[in-house]
Amino acid sequence: MEKSIETDPAYYDLGRNDYVDSDFASETTSLSSSVYRGVFENGRRYQTVREGASWCPSDEQQFESLEAGHLLCVLLDANTDNPLFHAPVKSPKQILDIGTGRGTWAIDVSDMFPNATVRGVDLFPPPVNWLPPNCTMEVDDILQEWTWHHPFDLIHMRQLIGAFTPVEWDGLFKQCYKNLSPGGWIEQIEGDPRIHCSDSSMSTDSSMVQFTEAVFRAGQNWNHPLDTLDTMRAAMEKAGFVDIQEKTYRWPVGPWARDPTMKEAGRLHYHQWTAGMEGWGLYLLTKFGVPRPWTKEEVLVLLARVRKELQDPHVHMWQYARRVWGRKPTQEEVEGKVKREAVVKDSEM
Ligand SMILES: C[S@@+](CC[C@H](N)C(=O)[O-])C[C@H]1O[C@@H](n2cnc3c(N)ncnc32)[C@H](O)[C@@H]1O
User: Fold this and answer.
1) Ligand 1: residues whose CB is within 6 Å?
2) Each residue of 208-261: pLDDT tens digit?
3) Contact 248, 320 (CB under 8 A)
4) In whole angstroms, what separates CA 156 from the centre of its chain?
5) Coiled-coil region(s) at which residues (predicted)?
6) 160, 161, 165, 228: which to mutate for ligand 1, most atoms within 8 A of CB?
7) CATH number for the domain including 234?
8) 302 inside domain
9) Pick from 16, 75, 227, 323: most CB atoms within 10 A?
10) Within a domain: residue 247?
11) Ligand 1 atom 21: the closest Cα is on which residue?
12) Strands (DSSP E) found in the chain
C-alpha cells in the first residue's frame, strides 16, 4: 500500500483559541515553527520568543496600525532633510532598528542608504515578502546578549513605549552605547498614550480619557511605564550620550485641524488609533488592569464607546510625541574627559 502523506499537527493549531496556554509550555514545539505561528490570546497573535516580553500583538491588525504610525511620523517631518531620522549621520555603514515591527522604517532607510547594511530586529518575524538587498530582518529578544560583530553608526527605536522596565531601559541604552561606533548616533521617537484637548470639546470623564488613563495605570502596575517619551532623554544621558537634541510633535486624532498637513496627520493618527487600540488595551488591561485585571468583555465594551467618540468630528483630541537623538562621544572626547577628571582629582588632594 502506498504510504500516506503525513499530516502536520501544528497546522491544526492555527485556530484562534485552542493553544492559548500550551504553547510556551510545550517541549515538543520547535522554536522556529512556534516563532512564526505565534500564540493566540483573546483573538490576537503574540510573539513566542519570551513569554510576557511584549504587550504588543504581532498580527495584521496591529501591523496596519504600525503602518499608519510610520506614515504619520514621515508626514510630520516631510519638510525636513530626512523624514526618517534627524541624527546627522551622513554615510552610515551599519544601522539597527530595534523592535522593527512591520519593518517599514528599516526598509525605507535601506532604500535611502543603499551602501549601508540595515538590520531590523523584533520578537516576531516582520511580515515581509521582499527586502532590499541591504536589509535583513532578525528575530531576537533585544534584552539578550547582542551577537553582532560590528559597531553600528545609527541605532533607531520607534514606538517602544512600555516595552521594558526602567532597569531594562537603562541596560538597553548601555548596550546601544557599547555597540555604537565612537561618534555614532542613537535616535528614538515615542508617542504619549495620554490624551489632550485644547478646547472644551472632550469631557474629562470621556471614554477616551478613561481608556488612556486605565492603560497608563496598567503600564505602571506592570512596571513597564508608558511615559517613555518623558524618560528616554534622561536615560540616554545616563548611558553617556552627548549632544542630545529633541523635537516635540502634536498628533491630532481625526481630520479636524485646519492646517492641511495636520488634517492629514489627524487622518493617519485616527487610523493608527482605530486599528491599534484593541491591541494597546487587551494585553495590558486583561493582565495588569487596576484595581484588578479586566475581562476581555470589559475592555471591548469600553473600546466600543471610545470608537464612537473617535468618530465624533466635534471632539478635538490630540497627543504628544517626541523624538530624541544623541551621540556617543568620540575616542578623543572620552580620553579628554578622563584627563580632565584626573586633573580635578589631583587638585582636590
Ligand atoms: C509598538 S511596536 C513598534 C514597531 C515599529 N518600531 C514601528 O514603529 O512601527 C513595538 C515592537 O517592539 C517589539 N519588541 C518589544 N520588546 C522587544 C524585545 N525585547 N526585543 C525585540 N523586539 C521587541 C514588539 O514585538 C513590537 O513589534
Assistant:
1) 47, 53-54, 56, 58, 66, 69-70, 99-102, 121-124, 141-143, 158-160, 163
2) 999 999 999 999 999 999 999 999 999 999 999 999 999 999 999 999 999 999
3) yes
4) 10
5) none
6) 160
7) 3.40.50.150
8) no
9) 323
10) yes
11) 122
12) 39-41, 44-46, 94-98, 117-122, 135-139, 152-158, 180-191, 196-197, 242-253, 317-327
Q: In angstroms, what is the span from residue 7 Cα to ligand 1's centroid?
A: 34
Amino acid type, 339: K
Q: Is residue 311 part of a domain?
A: no
pLDDT exceeds 60 at position 14: no
Number of domains composing the chain: 1
Query: Which residues, in sequence order, are CB contacts of 268 under 8 Å at separation 6+?
Result: 68, 69, 71, 72, 75
- Residue nearest to ligand 1 atom 8, measured at CA: 158
Grid coordinates representing 238 are 545616563
Residue of 73, 128, 159 to mutate, ligand 1, most atoms within 8 A of C-beta: 159
Joined together, the cell numbers standing for residue 219 give 503600564
> Does the CA dihedral 50-100-234-76 come out positive or negative?
negative
Domain that includes residue 63, residue range: 26-192+224-257+318-331
The owner of cell 500550551 is 22
347 CB burial (10 A radius; 0-12, 13-18, 19+): exposed
Report the alpha-carbon distance of residue 275 to residue 73 in Å, rounded: 17
Helix (H) or strand (E) run with residue 62 in it: helix 60-76
111 C-alpha to center of ligand 1: Å? Answer: 21
Q: What percent of the chain has pLDDT over 70?
A: 91
Closest-CA residue, ligand 1 atom 12, reads 99
The helices-and-strands tally (H runs, E runs) of the chain is 9, 10
| Res 10 pLDDT > 90 | no
